Amino acid sequence: MKLIPNIYRNNNSNAEKKVFNLFRDIELGPGWTAFHSLNISESAHKMMCEVDFVLLGPRGLFIFEVKGGRIRRENGIWYYKDRYGVEHKSSEGPFKQAINGMYALTKDVLFTKYKINTDKLSIGYGVIFPDTSFDEHSVEWPNESICNGSFTKNEVLFKKYLNRLIDYWVGKQKKSALPPDDPLLSQIINKLRPDFDQSPSLLNMLVQEDKEIVEHTEEQYLIIDAIEDNERIICTGGAGTGKSFLAVEITRRELFKDKSVILLVMEELFATYLKGQLADELKDKNYTLNICTLLELKELLNSMETQFDVLIVDEGQDLMSTENMDIMDAALNNGLANGKWRYFMDPNKQAGVIGYFDDEAYEIMKSYNHTSHKLSQNCRNTKQIVDQAEFHTGASIGDPFSKNTGKSVIHCDVTDQEDELNKINEILDKWVIQEAIPLSDIAILSPLQFSDSVASNLDKKWGKRMQAISQNNVMLDDNKILFSTIKNFKGLERMCIILIDTEKIKDMKNSLSTLYIGLTRARTYLWIASSNEFKEYLRFNLKQRDSSAQ
């Protein structure tokens, strides 16, 4: 059955995980979808209401409460003993919780929040006790709502329970079944999915407890769904369209299906960053995951006893060569032609913003039987930043997904190095002291190494609050401004970016690529030190594009 999300995220409940697997593995026929885990803050019945599972299909909408561990009721009080042997008590009870969840979802969420009338659907609830033989009869709940351990032994028995429960509620309410493709079912799925199917974002709020939870965009849902149906996928998108977000999320989902996964990138710093995002999965002995650079993969091939089930490549444009494809082919079970791979890449080589890219290798990659997807929504940058990046580089980085207006990009005129230092000090004073922006939300980017950059001469009060990026701090949130070369910051982001030493960009081997990366790292604030040389370089690029277009 289709289950949203299709990866189990709550590691605190073995009981819920068991039920999750049962819902995933059974089939009730066309048009059925199950949802797992929703906290409803809109509930009028209580401050916060949690729904463990929801089952939606042609015959109705059903809410389930799961209670693991040992359970008993004495004098109207419910007692639960968890897997650690700790006993908890509640006067509400699991059946009352299920009823509250049912009304909160149908009335407070679907009807009040989304204006969806569910009168055509049979509505009901059930309580699942996967660890006990609970079978207490009461006028307070129907016997058909009870699912004890005898029904959770396998999919056949669990399906028998669900059909019995559905028959009871449909018979009681006497409503006709809907067609599997009824628009009401699709409408409910489309409205509920963002509430259920959420993932840790790749924002640089890098302490695990503080990771923001973000809703996927509609096109990210299409990619995630396509992964389930296709062995090989090429996914393209400009900077900020969520390629790395998807690469990490799909890695989690493949691991959950007991697949061994290799996540391949070009740069060592970016590999370290991704290792931080997938730290829990790397520590889990039940998973086989290797996050590495191309050089590390070469070394790994010498000692590999078995190939990986799934290859996921991020920033794949940097790895597009026939030699690199040979290495990937050797690491993947059934090779690139017949194996399972997901290749995420930036297509902006056409604008000249990507360094080395082998067109022949790309044609070979596309010749394998695969599905292509293009990400067209920018999930990182504000409209102002998107407009600036596209105007100055000719690249396409997607339509801004953010509904916020955003701040204007600041091109600050600087006359010489001393003037640039003063202007940098001023913007840091404004952001940190006046606007109270945390130091860790700010990065200073330069085409130069720190020792050669104007940043090395900043006021001491800022110098001591700044650190150069390294493998040791790329995953730390230690309340310091981060300094990085533009090249090393590829794949990363910050809320605020200060772009300095810009007159040196034109001297870089891949100057347009460097500019492209520098302009697309900021989520909200982008401040650029604009010397006369830099402004002349921007005008030159624009003239070159205009003459090429004629």
Summarize it:
The chain is an alpha/beta fold and 550 residues long. A hairpin with a 2-residue loop joins strand 3 (49-57) and strand 4.
Describe the protein's architecture and organization.
- With 550 residues, this protein is an alpha/beta fold.
- Helices cover 36% and strands 22% of the residues.
- The strands form six sheets. It has a six-stranded mixed sheet with strand order 1-2-3-4-8-9, with helices on both faces.
- A hairpin with a 2-residue loop joins strand 3 (49-57) and strand 4 (60-66).
- Helix 9 (294-301) packs across helix 10.
- The chain starts with a strand and ends with a helix.
How far the N terminus sits from the C terminus, by CA atoms, comes to 54 Å
Cα Rg = 27 Å
Major beta sheet, specifics?
A: 6 strands, mixed
Low-pLDDT windows of residues = 201-214
Structural class: alpha/beta
Helices, by number, come to: 17
Instruction: Give the helix level as a range of percent.
Output: 25-40%
What is the overall silhouette?
elongated
Report the strand count.
25
Q: Which strand-content bin applies to the residues?
A: 15-25%
What is the overall pLDDT average?
A: 87
Strand order of the largest sheet: 1-2-3-4-8-9
Topology:
Elements: E1 2-4, H1 14-25, E2 33-40, E3 49-57, E4 60-66, E5 70-74, E6 77-81, E7 87-90, H2 93-113, E8 123-128, E9 146-147, H3 155-173, H4 183-196, E10 198-200, E11 213-215, H5 218-229, E12 232-236, H6 243-256, E13 261-265, H7 268-277, H8 279-283, E14 289-293, H9 294-301, E15 310-313, H10 322-331, H11 335-338, E16 340-345, H12 359-367, E17 371-374, E18 377-378, H13 383-393, E19 399-400, E20 410-413, H14 417-434, E21 442-446, H15 460-463, E22 466-468, E23 481-485, E24 494-499, H16 511-519, E25 522-530, H17 532-549
Parallel strand pairs: 1-2, 4-8, 8-9, 12-16, 12-17, 13-14, 13-15, 15-16, 18-19, 20-25, 21-23, 21-24, 22-23, 24-25
Antiparallel strand pairs: 2-3, 3-4, 5-6, 6-7, 10-11
